[in-house]
Every structure is written in structure tokens, then in C-alpha cells.
Amino acid sequence: EIVMTQSPATLSVSPGQRVTLSCRASQSVSSNLVWYQQKPGQAPRLLIYDASTRASGIPARFSGSGSGTEFTLTISSLQSEDFAVYYCQQYKNWWTFGQGTKVEIK
Amino acid sequence: QVQLVESGGGVVQPGRSLRLSCAASGFTFSSYAIHWVRQAPGEGLEWVAVISYDGSVTYYSDSVKGRFTISRDISKNTLYLQMNSLRAEDTALYYCARVRVMGNHPGAFDIWGQGTMVTVSS
């Protein structure tokens, strides 16, 4: 099983700040990497697929990068509606999620 | 609009069974693979099972293999998850989720239901 490890577990940030979330795979997943956003009481929302392609309707402040085992989700200027938990997921070999990074208000 | 709506959750005793449903609308149900993903209270996301667009192929996580069965009824645009021999550790919110690309592409999940809660407790 491919293990996905996200860091940090929690990130305390102020609105307007640039945010970088990391996701590491235990073995190469090529570009078969997805990012989701989940707010309390809501289902996950697809943000980025194929490591760097924004899903339909996702604002340009969200960007993804990386390949192989190291991936990054960047939010260029954090908005109030971006405070949430972010999960990465690989679909190279079965499907596994990271444990999530919570982005909270500083 | 495109949506998935889960139902069938509830409180059940350990060792008993439950069947979840996921009703699809707004898209060609028979063209997409669909997954079940669960989330224990306060925890992260865990992949459970997938069924191919035509129902011919299914895969399960090791934690549910042999106890859960995923199926789909194309005539009813509905996905099912038959859960047998339930355990306390199966307690979670169960989501169905559609793969973004038609066919058997193993890609991202673009449409999610709102989830249905399953509580396994005596």
C-alpha cells in the first residue's frame, strides 16, 4: 500500500498569507495525485487533479505541483473561505489518502 | 444538476448487516466508476470500495474485503454497499463519489454525496 504523509498536521495562518501544504508518497505515484478541500459538515471538494490541474470552478489562487513522491498545494493569498482541512490522495496504485492538513485562523 | 444522494445509514449492532444506497442523477450513471469512501468521526478519509462503470469489476480495501459488497443497478441509477459482519471500527460517515473521467480511468473523485452515517454499537 502506498502511504501518503501530509505536513504539517495543522497550519495557523492569517488571511492574505501565502500557504504551502506538503504531501509525500511512500513510493512514486507519478502525477496521479489529487487535492481535496473539506469544510466542517461538508463532503470533500475536488481542488486539483493530476497533481497540477485545477478542477472546474476552482479559483486561480489554488495551485498544485510535484511528481513522483513530493507534492505541494499552494494557496497564493488565503481567503476566509479557505480555512478547512486539505487532503491529498493518490490513485497510482489503488487509492489512499493522506491524513489531512488543517488550515486554521491565526 | 449532477448529484449523488446516499441513504440507508443508521445504528446497528456488531455482527449485523446494513445496506447503503447512493442515488445518482444529472449524469449518465452507466458511464462512470463510483467509489465508497468513509470517514470515522473526527478522522480522515478512508477508501472502501469501487465498482467499474459497467459493474463488471470491483475492488475493496483490506479492511472490508469479504464483508462488504459493492454493486450497482443501472436501471435505477443506484449504487449499493452491502455491509455484513459489521464491527465497531466500521462506524463512519459513508460517502459515494464519482470518478471524474468516464470509463475505467482510476482518477480523481469529482462528485461526492453528502454522506450517510453508520454507527455500529451494542
Task: Describe this entry's structure for a reader.
The complex is a heterodimer of chains A (106) and B (122). Chain A has no helices and 11 strands. By secondary structure, chain A is an all-beta fold. Chain B has strands spanning 3-7, 10-12, 18-25, 34-39, 45-51, 58-60, 68-73, 78-83, 92-99, 109-112, 116-120. In chain B, strands 2, 4, 5, 6, 9, 10 and 11 form a 7-stranded mixed beta sheet that branches. Chain B is globular and about 40 Å long. Chain B starts with a strand and ends with a strand. Chain A binds chain B through residues 32, 34, 36, 38, 43-46, 49-50, 55, 87, 89, 91, 94-100, and chain B through 35, 44-47, 50, 59, 61, 95, 97, 100, 106-110, 112-115.
- What portion of residues of chain A belong to β-strands? over 45%
Coarse shape of chain A: globular
Number of helices of chain A: 0
Strand content of chain B: over 45%
Structural class of chain B: mainly beta
Low-confidence stretches of chain A: none
Residue share in helix of chain A: under 10%
| Distance separating the two termini of chain B | 39 Å
Shape of chain B: globular
Defining key terms:
heterodimer; A: 106 residues; mainly beta; 4-stranded antiparallel β-sheet; 11 strands; 0% helix; B: 122 residues; 7-stranded mixed β-sheet; 50% strand; globular
Quick overview:
Chain A is mainly β and 106 residues long. Chain A has no helices and 11 strands. In chain A, the strands form 2 sheets. In chain A, strands 2, 4, 5, 6, 9, 10 and 11 form a 7-stranded mixed β-sheet that branches. In chain A, strands 1-3-8-7 form a 4-stranded antiparallel β-sheet, with no helix packed on it.
Present the secondary structure layout.
The complex is a heterodimer of chains A (106) and B (122).
Chain A (H helix, E strand, L loop, with lengths): L3 E4 L2 E4 L5 E7 L7 E6 L6 E5 L3 E2 L7 E6 L2 E6 L8 E7 L5 E2 L3 E5 L1
Parallel strand pairs in A: 2-11
Antiparallel strand pairs in A: 1-3, 3-8, 4-5, 4-9, 5-6, 7-8, 9-10, 9-11
Chain B lengths: L2 E5 L2 E3 L5 E8 L8 E6 L5 E7 L6 E3 L7 E6 L4 E6 L8 E8 L9 E4 L3 E5 L2
Parallel strand pairs in B: 2-11
Antiparallel strand pairs in B: 1-3, 3-8, 4-5, 4-9, 5-6, 7-8, 9-10, 9-11
